[in-house]
Design a protein that fits this description.
The complex is a heterodimer. Chain A has 13 helices and no strands. Chain A is an all-alpha fold. The radius of gyration of chain B is 23 Å and the shape is globular. The chains are: A mainly alpha, B mainly alpha.
Chain lengths: 262, 266
């Protein structure tokens, strides 16, 4: 009874190891190429910038939404959560594709703008379209994470803050916000990680010439056929993601400690 | 609870909901459009649905998606359950190592897992196709199954299985009749996660599949480069299936509960 799962675990662990063996079996040339070529560095910079902007927008939109839901009555809460999570069940490709029709040069937004005699705006194949697509796909994760941490909060803490003379703004800044920090952090993880590595959103909304780290890896593997360079790029990306996750966790812990000292 | 009027908040939430649902509605509406245009609605027609059902690649992709999701769910749930139960019985070191390994595909960006699998398949000379897609799906579903069963196992009393064996049950009976029923909620939620992950997967499938085999996601990705309202029709069908499934999943337990509580009161 124990032998079978053990064998499966071995097999399972071993296949993973197999991956990393093939991944690590090359020289440093590929890393050098990635880290010295300005074109690739630009790609890296753009990916990070887009991912950070997406994450910030998700926090700015997601926090008020989560706060609103958390303050609703119990039955309404369930309905809101269902409404927010329902779209995430629908295939991301399908949802991203929906935006292409809306944002086209002759799409519905430009038709409306044209009706009011505004000059048409180019949406497709811009940073705006890519960030919009990412926010659209990842915002529900942020809302749900923050909402969960807000509902876990002890309401009596707010009453205590009010008793101690804090006004609503003060108690929000000093009590609610710090206590919902874990939710924001896990929300950041769920938004930043897919955003920095995404490749179909920039491909569909950014067009063929819009290169991000994800699309670079894809083209190296599926069209250029340079697997070694592709692996190096993905390894760099994985390291960057790990570092940023580590920093967010550290920041979170630091703030908690600070709160404890006060 | 006191009722607060929050006009600003309500307006904001309306905006968020419109943001979430407008593109989906837009896709549904234009799937019934008579012309090929994605901007002007010229008249109601079902011709894109007709085209979709007559399109072999689309039907094939749908078939592959469903078949892969079903098989991957069954296999990964089975393997994941056994692994999780085995893990709960093994030593600390093994447990920690496997749990860490288990985290890798979840924490890693999908694209990294995808190229890892692609390299593995080519290293063992497996030809890209339906079989590799199925294997990859089973592999990336297992960690989620394990993760959803582990907490249930942890809260399980270890003496129960021993008690069963003391009472004459074979180890297999103890497993099937005692442990599995106790962790059933975890297994079911693991299977549900596995199914939806597999059904929706694009990145990993896209990398490990070839030779003309594609699932719905790959099809949408490759077809979306040119205007093709059949994609809208396909999207509408997917939205419909998912909405109906979710409604059933939410409504049926509620009805059952109501019936049961009725029985008690009768």
């Amino acid at each position: 009874m124990i032998a079978i799962p053990m064998f499966l675990i071995l097999l399972y662990a071993f296949t993973k190891e197999g991956n990393s063996v093939t991944r690590f079996a090359f020289s440093l040339v590929n890393f050098k190429r990635f880290l010295t070529d300005t074109v690739f560095l630009e790609v890296l910079y753009r990916s990070l910038r887009i991912a950070i902007e997406t994450t910030v927008i998700c926090i700015l939109l997601g926090y008020p939404a989560a706060y609103y839901i958390a303050k609703s009555s119990e039955t309404l809460k369930m309905r809101w959560v269902l409404l927010i999570t329902l779209p995430t069940w629908i295939n991301m490709l399908v949802r991203t594709y929906a935006w292409t029709g809306i944002l086209q040069d002759d799409g519905i937004i430009n038709s409306i703008l044209g009706f009011f005699h505004f000059a048409p705006v180019k949406f497709m194949y811009t940073d705006f379209a890519v960030i919009l697509g990412m926010v659209y796909n990842f915002l529900p994760f942020m809302i749900i994470q923050i909402y969960t941490s807000l509902t876990k909060m002890d309401v009596s803490l707010l009453e205590a803050a009010a008793d101690l003379g804090a006004n609503r703004r003060m108690s929000f800044l000093k009590v609610t916000l710090p206590l919902s920090m874990p939710g924001i952090i896990s929300g950041i993880t769920l938004v930043f990680l897919p955003a920095v590595s995404s490749f179909f959103i920039p491909r569909m909304l950014g067009g063929g010439n819009y290169v991000m780290v994800g699309t670079l890896i894809e083209s190296q593997f599926l069209t250029a056929g340079d697997w070694n360079f592709g692996s190096a790029v993905s390894l760099v990306m994985a390291v960057i993601i790990m570092i940023s996750m580590y920093i967010t966790k550290k920041v979170d812990k630091g703030e908690q400690l600070e709160g404890g000292v006060k | 609870m006191k009722k607060q009027k929050r006009p600003f908040g309500t307006a904001f939430m309306t905006f968020i909901i419109i943001f979430f649902y407008a593109p989906i509605l837009y896709t549904i509406i234009f799937s019934f459009n008579e012309s090929k245009s994605l901007t002007t609605f010229t008249g109601f027609s079902l011709k894109w649905y007709e085209k979709m059902f007559n399109n072999n690649t689309m039907m094939e992709a749908m078939f592959y998606t469903i078949i892969v999701a079903v098989i991957a769910t069954i296999v990964s749930t089975f393997v994941g359950t056994i692994t999780a139960i085995g893990l709960s019985k093994s030593g600390k070191v093994v447990k920690n190592v496997v749990e860490q390994v288990n985290q890798l595909p979840i924490m890693n960006p999908e694209i990294v897992t995808a190229i890892g699998l692609l390299m593995l398949f080519s290293a063992i000379h497996l030809e890209k196709g339906l079989f590799t897609m199925l294997l990859a799906h089973i592999m990336f579903c297992i960690p989620y199954v394990i993760l959803s069963i582990m907490p249930k196992l942890r809260s399980l009393n270890p003496n129960i299985a021993e008690a069963a064996m003391d009472l004459g049950a074979t180890p297999w009976q103890a497993l099937v009749k005692v442990i599995v029923p106790q962790v059933m909620p975890g297994i079911i939620s693991g299977a549900l996660i596995a199914f939806t992950m597999s059904f929706d997967d694009f990145v990993i499938s896209y990398f490990v599949t070839g030779n003309g085999v594609s699932n719905i996601s790959i099809l949408v990705y490759t077809e979306a480069r040119r205007i093709n309202p059949s994609i809208n029709a396909l999207s509408t069908v997917i939205v419909l299936i998912i909405t109906v499934t979710l409604t059933f999943a939410n409504v049926i337990p509620a009805i059952k509960e109501r019936r049961q509580s009725k029985k008690i009161y009768d």
